[in-house]
Amino acid sequence: MFTTTGSRGMYKAPLSKSLLLVPTALTVLLTLLLPQYQSLFEYNLQAVKEEYQIWRLLSGRIICLDLKDTFCSGLLIYNFRIFERRFGSRKFASFLLGTWALGAAVDILLAEALHFLFEMQVEMLPAGLLSPVFALFVPFFCSIPRVPVTQLLGQISVTNKSLVYIVGLQLLTSSSFMWVIALSGLVSGVLYHCNVLWMQRLLQVPAWLGRVGALLLEPLLEGSEPTQEAPVGMGATLDVQRQQRMDLLDQQLLLSQLAQVRRNAQQPQAGLLNWGWLFPTLRQRGRNATPAVAVAQARRPGPSPPPENSPVAEEQVARLMEMGFSRVDAQEALRASNNDINMATNFLLQH
Questions:
Q1: CATH 1.20.1250 fits 14-221, yes or no
Q2: pTM higher than 0.85, yes or no?
Q3: Disulfide-capable partner of 2 in 9, 98, 264, 346 (CB 3.0 to 4.6 Å)?
């Protein structure tokens, strides 16, 4: 099933793991052991403009000087690791580098605009790698599907993205001028995500640097590959364990059939993906499954899947269309996944 961040830990996310470990260790070192050196890592815009200390645009935007900001930004980076697994470490690093560079320019422009319009003097901004963290909310809002989970008091809808927004709001309210950093990050994220003035080409990590980083980071920080039989919680009942194993078995079966179809394809088809040609084999996965899988599916509790010609819910089609998929692809994906919007979204995003 598709979730916001998956459950594979830091697998295939070495850059995210390094962003969690290195800045956190440096923050603890400066806060507890070397507080006399904190002034070197302050994000002082006044010193940049008047004393021409340009190096503060580098040192003041790497390490957080507040443990609470470090904790909240670490939680957000851990949730946003899905983008590194989806796009690759080099493209993820290019996004962070581009928004980090754009954020410095936007910070100065916002400070000058506040001084000119409202006579508000912005001398010190929160330090740390905060602008790229807020910039990651742009692809998070645009590409991660919003799946309702429950409702509070019968009116407030709680989705799979609510916790991430709550942590971002907590980080936003941690200091008085954090909203300047947040606005700068969102603006830089929109500019880079929309590729304004070809920024994705201009502000990207060189290929040679990506190869060097892969040789250095991956052996040290690459997470272990998750096992197929993942352990379940101690409080889980037998039914929950069986449900988790069956979900994993269904997903592996669907992905293996999709890989087999791709290997048998002779020529790629132009235009839209031919879901009608791809998914009939997926609909028949219960017939073509191995005997062990068929027996397990027969024992699995729950209602029987709808027939192939069952209508799809227009609400689910509209939700997939809001994510940017065409109506035809959304309908075919929902029919193939038996109207399971999580599974349909997974196939549309990954394949």
A1: no
A2: no
A3: 346
